[in-house]
Amino acid sequence: MRLRNVKGALDIIEASPYIIKNPKDYKGKFKTLFDNKNPLHLEIGIGKGNFIINMAKKYPHINFIGIEMFDSIMVRTVQKLEEEEIPNLKLIKMDATNIEDVFNEEIDVLYLNFSDPWPKTRHEHRRLTSERFLKRYDSIFKNNKIIIQKTDNRKLFEYSLKSFTDYNYKIEELSLDLHKDNYDNVLTEYEEKFSSMGYPIYMVKVVK
């Protein structure tokens, strides 16, 4: 994916009330930030924000946090939120490799939507469903570990299924063509694009 620089992106991001500037201060106590005890769902890699914004609107009794490491992507979500008031949504600009430094036993559901497939074997450890990342996720979950993945990349999906099951996750739901299977589904930008081009969308929900 080619990232276009957005002039003043960092300033726009930091000025947004949706951005958590000091996330490590809330480690283990994000419920105080939302001032409630509602479930907390996390999306890694928010794209342009369609998924997490619409999920937060659809499920007001669930708190949502989206993380993204690139200014040029995060700023698009922030700009969409300028005229919105969504109290159950927050964003963090960070690298997912540092996820254990920010969250501790408080996430109920983790979303991995259209993550970079990192197709080269030498980059396997960068995949968000690799064993290295699954180990990182262990400490962030509150109770049961629940991961929901969507992708258009068949090879990444096959890799992820093996990675999940090797790590003792159980497959609870699975679709090889999400839109034809008629799931209750909130779309991402990539999902709209790929689906309109006729590509099947793969989805799996795993639990541990």
Structure in words:
It is a single chain. The protein is globular. It has a seven-stranded mixed beta sheet with strand order 3-2-1-4-5-7-6, with helices on both faces. By secondary structure, it is α/β, with parallel strands linked by helices. It is built from eight helices and seven strands, in the order H-H-E-H-E-H-E-H-E-H-E-H-E-H-E.
| Main CATH class | Alpha Beta
Question: Shape, please?
Answer: globular
CATH fourth-tier homologous superfamily: Vaccinia Virus protein VP39
**Uncertain ranges:** none
What number of domains? 1
Distance between the termini: 32 Å
**Sheet/helix structural class:** alpha/beta
Strand order of the largest sheet: 3-2-1-4-5-7-6
Rounded mean pLDDT is 93
Q: In angstroms, what is the radius of gyration?
A: 16 Å
What is the fold named in CATH at topology level?
Rossmann fold
Please bin the fraction of helical residues.
Answer: 25-40%
Number of strand segments? 7
Features:
8 helices, 208 residues, seven-stranded mixed sheet, Rossmann fold, single chain, 30% helix, alpha/beta
